[in-house]
Every structure is written in structure tokens, then in C-alpha cells.
Amino acid sequence: MRRMLPLLLLVALLCVACSTPGHRSAEGRVLFVGNSLIYVGNTPAVYAALSASTGRPVATDMIVRGGATLHQRLTDGSVARALQDQRYSVLVLQERGGDLMCSFGRPSCARSRQAVKDLALLARNHGTRVFLLGTYQANPQASRELVAMESEAAAVAGIPYIEVSETLQQLRALAPELNWFAADGMHPGTDLALLNG
Questions:
Q1: Residues 6+ apart with CB under 8 A from 14
Q2: For labelling alongside 49, which of 27, 90, 122, 196 has CA 20 to 30 A away?
């Protein structure tokens, strides 16, 4: 049960962020922005179901594309349009796996960090709370490096970071029989989708 505490805290934190003070029955609206790490396993639907089970229903939307980066979502204006067209209580950003640890080179890393900052500012200007949802690495050393880089990017942007990779490492060691990954061995399986949700 102690190992599930980060998941329970994530659900509670996002549920509180979606509630409107004085209007506990009001429905929040959460926008997830990222790539296949969000849509494989349908993180928005999992989050909505978990949130509803706590008595705080939310609506969720997503702006995603396989292999997409946050820089692409910033420059194509899709997030700006969504924030203009709809009142979101929370924006959840998830970068393409590896970008924030410079796996695709320094220019990609710099664009990623700047996109996190710019999207956070854009959302705050719309009165929307922003979170950076971490990605994951199977290799323990890479996992630690990833968490350090993601948490640093979130801190620089002034937003909370929801760590995934180290929690996944611990849970995989504790319960290796669970369905952590999809058949491709890379995308979230049903149990990792619950952790992301």
C-alpha cells in the first residue's frame, strides 16, 4: 500500500485542483497535452474515472499525436486555441520520452524546456493550473537522470512535477507480474495507465 501512495496523492492533488472553492459539485475540466504516452492506455479517461470514484467528476480532453513534442504543440497553437475556446481548471503536460534528458540532442532539449515554461505561462494567463506529468525509463540509471531533468524543468517553469519513472521502478520490483507495458514493451500497459491516471 505504501508503494501506491504516489498514485493516490496524484489523484487527490489533481482532484483538489479541479474543484472550485465553494462549489464542490462543480465539474472541473482537465486538458492533457502530449503524445502516445497519453493516448495509449487513455490516461485522460483513466484519470476521469479515478476522479469520479472519489466523488469529484471531471471532464477531460487531450491534444496528442504519436511522437509529438510539447514544442510542436506550442508552435502549432493548438494549446492556445484550446485554452481560448474552453475553460480548463488543469493542464497536464507530458513531454515525449527522453526530450527533457537531451536524448535527441541539445537543441531538442532546449526547445523542450522552453516549451514547458511557455505553455505553463500561457495556461496561468488563462487561470489554469499546470502540472508536468513525468515519463519513464526502464534502465535504473536513466530513470534517475530522467526524474532529475524533468523535475528541474518543472521547477524552472514554476509548476508541480508528477514523478512517474522512479515510482514505476519500485512498483515493477514489487509486482513484476502486473501489466506495466503494452505489447510493444514501450507504451503504457493497463497498470501503468492507472499510475499515469
A1: 30, 47, 51, 90, 92, 131
A2: 122
Give me the number of domains the chain comprises: 1
Q: Distances from the Cα of 183 to the Cαs of 50, 66, 133, 195, in angstroms?
A: 24, 16, 23, 18
Tell me the C-alpha distance between 83 and 127, whole Å. 10
Whether the full predicted model's pTM is greater than 0.85, yes or no, is no
Q: How confident is the model over 126-167, as pLDDT tens digits? A: 999 999 999 989 899 999 999 999 999 999 999 999 999 898
User: Does any domain span residue 18?
Assistant: no
**Quick check: is 137 in a domain?**
yes
Query: Using one digit for the tens of pLDDT, what is the confidence trace for 35-58?
Result: 988 888 889 998 999 899 999 999
